[in-house]
Amino acid sequence: MEVEVKLRIPDSETYKTLISLLSPFHIRTHNQHNNFFDGVAGQLSSQRAVLRIRFYNDQPTTKCIICLKAKAVLVNGVSRVEEDEEELDPTIGQECLTDPNRLGSLVESSRIMKRVKDEFFGEINDVEGLGFVCLGGFKNLRNVYEWKGLMIEVDETSFDFGTLRFKICHFSIWEIAIVLSEVACCLNYIGDLSNSRNGCKLMHLALQRSWDFARIEL
Q1: CA pair distance 144, 139, nearest whole angstrom
Q2: Would you list the DSSP string of 2-48?
Q3: What angle do CA 179, 185, 218 make, to 5 degrees?
Q4: Please, are residues 153 and 125 in contact by the beta-carbon 8 Å criterion?
Q5: Which residues pair with 39 in a beta bridge?
């Protein structure tokens, strides 16, 4: 069981400072393009699920991953969601982006799409009856770091309405309380460097969340 903690970075200056501080621990950079899909009648979203096709436009190769995010539950500010992923031919991924109904033809060749059909279109036996719609998407620049044995991702996400930035940390459940406190202190330090009180606010929020996570039983 992996736990992902996502903290929003308040502004571009804090983002630049964080990138600079983490630069000695940089592993790789991903240029991602995320696209989300649902059934034409909302078959997935009505059951708190969504289908995502993610392109990794990392030259010289392009990678494509199809992912089913399902069984989402939000309790006390903590989101739990099941993610099932499978690699997809990038050419087929582009075809699905152009014509979402192309997804239906993948039922026989894709484990993810077979699961989508069985779990969300159970009463439809004809593949031609599987209708999909693209919900939109966004581009994401993800820098990946390894710090103190942790995998840290810093995202700069571009939407039509603007840009958001996040710091994402991956933990095993028993590491959360201790490590999140360290991350919070780091963010507080960054906030001081940026002459921003938001760093302090983030620290208190993260410390509070660390205790909440520590009590979760999965």
Answers
A1: 16
A2: -EEEEEE--SHHHHHHHHHHHGGGEEEEEEEEEEEEEETT-TTGGGT
A3: 30
A4: no
A5: 132
**Token pair recorded at residue 21:** 């501080």
Q: What angle do CA 167, 173, 177 make, to 5 degrees?
A: 70
For the segment 161-210, what is each residue's pLDDT rounded down to a tens digit?
A: 777 777 676 655 445 545 555 555 555 555 554 454 444 444 444 444 44
pTM for the whole thing?
A: 0.73
Q: CA–CA separation, 156 vs 53, rounded Å? A: 18
Q: Is the peptide bond before 100 cis (omega within 30 degrees of 0)?
A: no
Q: Which residue has the tokens 């969504």?
A: 50
Q: Which residue has the tokens 């240029």?
A: 31
Q: Nearest 5°: CA angle at 188, between 185 and 192?
A: 140
Strand order, beta sheet including 3-8: 3-8, 162-171, 150-159, 132-147, 26-39, 50-56, 63-75, 78-87
Q: Rounded CA gap, 97 and 73, in Å?
A: 28
27 bridge partner residues: none
Amino acid at residue number 106: L
Q: Tokens in use for 16?
A: 């630049």
